[in-house]
């Protein structure tokens, strides 16, 4: 499946409707981004069950800011709408393939339980006022 161009208008819908989304935050002027692009494209073609999206940080500055992107390329993985991985830097193809395997196998019941536990802790902690 070809990569999908993501922006402020379609990002939320894309990560909500698809159980696993890999996102490449990039910019045209970025040399490492250009070298990572073919690796990302090949992974997208090899895994039609996974959505591979690209966010042009120049065109979607608000989206990049919302995710705290400070270095590009940054690869982010969202599973069931939850960010489960985020790392700057261009990856070699074997490392990206390994991440796809890990993300597919990730047990989200455990992740959701940890999120709920953290939320409960935050709500139980009195805030200073």
What would you say about this model in short?
With 129 residues, this protein is α/β, with parallel strands linked by helices.
Secondary structure elements and their pairing?
Blueprint (H helix, E strand, L loop, with lengths): L3 E3 L4 H7 L2 E7 L4 H16 L4 E6 L4 H6 L7 E6 L2 E7 L4 H13 L2 H17 L5
Parallel strand pairs: 1-3, 2-3
Antiparallel strand pairs: 2-4, 4-5
Order of helices and strands: EHEHEHEEHH
- How is the largest sheet built, in terms of strand order? 1-3-2-4-5
Uncertain residue ranges:
none
Number of domains: 1
What is the level 1 CATH name?
Alpha Beta
What does this structure look like?
It is a single chain. The chain is α/β, with parallel strands linked by helices and 129 residues long. Helix content is 46%, strand content 22%. It is globular.
